[in-house]
TrEMBL record:
Belongs to the CcoP / FixP family. GO terms for cellular component: plasma membrane. Its cofactor is heme c. Binds 2 heme C groups per subunit. NCBIfam families: ccoP (TIGR00782). Residues 132-211, 218-306 form the Cytochrome c domain. This is Cbb3-type cytochrome c oxidase subunit. C-type cytochrome. Part of the cbb3-type cytochrome c oxidase complex. Heme c 2 binds at residues 188, 231, 234-235.
Amino acid sequence: MNQDFVSGFWGYYVAAIVIGGIIGMAYLLLSQRIKRKAAGEKVETCGHVWDGDLEEYNNPMPKWWMGLFWLTLIFGVVYLALYPGLGVYSGTKQWTSVGQYEAERKTAEARYQAIYDKYLKMDIKQVAADPEARQMGQRLFGTYCVQCHGADAKGAKGFPNLTDHDWLYGGEPEKIQETILGGRKGAMPAFGAALGEDGVKDVANYVMSLSALPHNADRAVRGKETFTTICAACHGPDGKGNQAMGAPNLTDKVWLYSSSQTKPDAIQQSIIETITNGRNGVMPPWKDFLGEAKVHLLASYVYGLSNNPQTASK
């Protein structure tokens, strides 16, 4: 960031422009004060004539119009005295957008805290089956989660689908809540330099064979040896992953970084990119921002997306 734009100079610069504009406007209004014309005094014109005798008179503005300008100017001065607008001067009310947000948030918390506390004491499966709780969770999801997971919660390339039963870290209620509270950091190391282009393609074809997708059988045979030596440490010898460390299941035909779940060419290209360059996925933690009560509601809603909420508590 350029430090010139966060220095104190710019606050004084803005204040000087605002004050100068107010003084300039006041001077302009004063210079246009209405002067009484003496009896028989000829009205000045602007020198413009049309059709031989149609002249443009230089009459002053009406008093009511001038009055509106003065009222606007006075309002501006009073506003700037009360609220921030003069750069370094914060106004007598000391108003800030952050302070306004905090005040509104505290008001809302006081109003709804009893409801949050009620659901916090309930099991996540029970909360997921409660219609009112689902609506509250949906609103929370719509505010904080749709940017990554989409309005339908089906995710996008690099962002998990929350409506199916494929979970990197586990889909149990406690695991979902743990993920939202503390966030997740997933990392797939890059192997392109170590394996080379052919080695990467070999492993990619073996990975595709795990999901019974079209693949090159010869490359898959060579790739299996590499997979067993390098990749099985995270994904397991059978390729079914390891939820304890967020290593995905490679046998279920669900591809987090593929724009297509059905076109073999697109899937293969995505797998090759992943092995070559690695991947880094981050799910931010929400505990400090939302608090445990709201996260509890949000986790219940997410759980209900892939589980029937009507039967979750039975």
